[in-house]
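Dear colleagues,

As part of the handover before I leave the project, I'm documenting each prediction I ran so the next person doesn't have to rerun anything. This entry is a single chain, and its sequence is reproduced below.
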Amino acid sequence: MSVDSNITPESTETHVLRLDDAPFHFASGDELPSVDVAYETWGELNADKSNAILLTHALSGSHHACGHNPDIPEATVRWSDELHDGWWEDFIGPGKAVDTDKYFVISANYLGGCYGSTGPASIDPETGKAYGSKFPHLSVVDQVNMQAKLLDSFGIDVLHAAIGPSVGGLITLTFATLFPERVKTVIPIASGMKTTVLNRLILFEQILAIENDQYFNGGDYYEGQRPDYGLALARMISHKTFVHLDAIERRARSEVRQDEETLAWYKVQDTFQSYMLHQGKKFVKRFDANTYLRIIDMWSRYDACAEAGAASVKELFDRCAKHNHKFLVFSIDSDFCFYPEEQAEIVSGLEKSGVETMHITVHSDKGHDSFLLEPALYTPHIAYALSS
């Protein structure tokens, strides 16, 4: 494997690690001869490499969690202005929840992503064209294996902690149970251990929205028009689960209605429809439809036991007990995406295996996105879990 030579831990620049010492094998059975992993780091890795924290982003997030990064060449035009500032800026830094005076934080863009890691929009060296439909289906275990290789490149054997919100929490949980010897503290935020039937149906609606766009072309659209309508609709479907409906109403009421917005026949009627349409239009400027499909397909099939090769929940979490893990599990009481009952299931399994576990329910009116917006509700608990 090779890594670029200009790495500075405090930099907010994106770096790219090429995994090319052997083919990358996917859980689907497919393989690629090499893959690139885009990542950023903050803080400094100590001499014995014991202070590293692995942070995994959510579905449509990126590895750029902190600082200002105005340009990621590999992301091309998708790196829009709204992405330039880190998505967890209020959580990472000196004296913050994840204190960079103490810890070395590393975060990677998903494999299959569109912000620098190899994904469907990347060029297939065999054809000179984008992978498109040929890019493999993804599983959470593929992301975990990629992360393990990234940590290997730094010589990090054991993480001080692994943290992941939302879909990132699925990956965090699988990292901890597939490689239990490589982490001490595990912090899944507003996540789960098996995708619910409700979420699978909501994700399926989004898949259909993209698949039925006239420009999707089975995923091979990079030389023509993009399936923007389908991707925008998919985002609108998902947005209702990320943001509490009361918050949507507040935001919509504060916006100026765009009366000129029309579809083929229907005219937008009110600020609520205008707000939601705006969210969809904004999203297609910064994200790739094929990447979105790969990630929601990965999420739809998630089962923590299956990903880690465990026959039961007891076997899964006995691995954590054996390696003396500490868990901090966050729920959000207004979450419509990963309901609090899902985190309760994780906690129940951990406790039955005797794993040291702290379960915090955040009381918020902001829904699932609370973990992005309200650092004061999370910081004391994260700081305590990391320091204890």
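The longest strand covers residues 35-42. Residues 140-154 form the longest helix (15 residues).

All the best with the project,
I.
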